Amino acid sequence: MRRAGHRALFAGGCVRDMLLGTPPKDYDVATSATPGEVAALFDKTIHVGASFGVTVVVLPEAQFEVTTFRTDGPYTDGRHPAFVQFRGEVEDAQRRDFTINAMFFDPESEQIVDYVRGQDDLDSRLIRTVGEPRQRFAEDHLRLLRAVRFAGRLRFAIEPATFDAIREMAHLVTTTSAERIRDELTKILTEGGARSALELMDETGLLEHVLPEIAQMKGVEQPPEFHPEGDVFTHTLILADMLKGAPPTLAFGALLHDVGKPATMTVEDRIRFNNHDKIGAEMAEAICKRLRMSNHDTERIVWLVDQHMRLAHAPQMRVSKLKRFVREPGFPELLQLGRLDCLASHGDTKTIDWIEHYVDKIPPDAIRPTPLLTGDDLIALGYTPSPLFGEILRTIEDAQLEGSIPTKKAALEYVRSHWPLPH
User: Fold this and answer.
1) Where are the domains of the chain?
2) Is the dihedral of CA 135, 140, 144, 146 positive or negative?
3) What is the model's pLDDT at position 78?
4) 126, 159 in Cβ contact below 8 A?
5) CATH assignment, 125-210
6) DSSP-assigned beta bridge partners for residue 45
7) Which residue in 71, 185, 203, 53 sits closest to 131, CA to CA?
């Protein structure tokens, strides 16, 4: 683009990350070239938002999002400008969300181009909007959540005027689409600094609007012999701070694993939360649907919440029951959740260690052996297909997993003796 006479600079998050010494995940480019001029310069481009000046340039080594320098017209929907006008780089910097995301880098001179004092805020470890905070947040209400995400991940403070604006406008975050909120929460939970971000969500009032079920955990005390760390909210925060790099399903399963406790708390011989796993699973399903999670992710998250208390009983399970448990598709994530749950409370991981040792030493074919019998075998014996088939086959598989029926011949004999056919 420069060879063609256009101004072109790296822009936004990649510049911030370079200054922080963090390898950028991707590189965005801001340019004086219009989308049509960009497309004419490269063999393969994708117009993802030509009306907003955005073009993706596809090169063999990577894809680059290229945006024409612009100013934005009025925002009427809390997300998109009504129109954009192509302008210069100064105006382009001034339309961006936060100062630390509004810097440019000139690869030829190797100089930072900073029109918004982003370097000063980076040095001061501050999240500050570009320009007037209320105007920036009114343009895109998701920026309310983005501010706490960046503050949490980078361990930065939020500049006072920016913080006050978030607190005043927190209720507007609910006008943002569920999908965008879900994606932002996923980043909060998995990019690092989740505890700090959740605390900021609580302090600014965002939490009660985005995840009121988590806000309700505050002040819900727990038995100190199992949870010396404090209430359910504190426990969840400690656990959340260990989620960096976790799969999204594990991250949300961890966030929601005790979501049923506020509704089930009783004080008997001690504080108890009877059936909080089952109630929590129902609540988790409702939350996942509200956030428009995929069916797969919803099922996994709900399963993690529903099953997390079973880990404590694994060493006492029958062999067949334990083998069925550990071969569940989500079990590796459940085991990770169990370890995090222990580390965020009493710190005793002996049961989790026992399960990990069991899983490591047992051969895969011992957990999921080839079935000794099928429905066809039962039909060959003279049985008529019926719901009884399921009972018979499960009983045989249990015995196979236990090691008490090792061969097909023994399985057939067992069926004949326990479910004799009428003469």
Assistant:
1) 1-121, 125-210, 211-368, 375-418
2) negative
3) 65
4) yes
5) 1.10.110.30
6) 57
7) 71
CB count within 10 Å of CB 387 equals: 6
Assigned fold of 1-121:
Beta Polymerase; domain 2 (3.30.460)
- State if pTM tops 0.85: yes
Residue 304 burial (CB < 10 Å; 0-12/13-18/19+)?
Answer: buried
* Residue 97 φ then ψ, to 5°: -75, -60
Question: pLDDT confidence of 74, banded at 50, 70, 90?
Answer: confident
Question: In terms of Cα–Cα distance, which of 256, 314, 258 is closest to 289?
Answer: 256
Residue 266 corresponds to which amino acid?
Answer: T
pLDDT of the residue at 49: 74
Cβ–Cβ < 8 Å for 56, 44: no
Residues 322 and 328: their CA atoms lie apart, in Å, by 10
Supply the DSSP string of 293-343, one letter for each residue. --HHHHHHHHHHHHHTTGGGGGGGS-HHHHHHHHTSTTHHHHHHHHHHHHH
Are 70 and 53 in contact by the 8 Å Cβ rule? The answer is yes
Fold for 211-368, please state it. Hypothetical protein af1432 (1.10.3210)
Residue type, 43: D
End-to-end CA distance of the chain: 88
pLDDT in tens, 381-416: 999 999 999 999 999 999 999 999 999 999 999 999
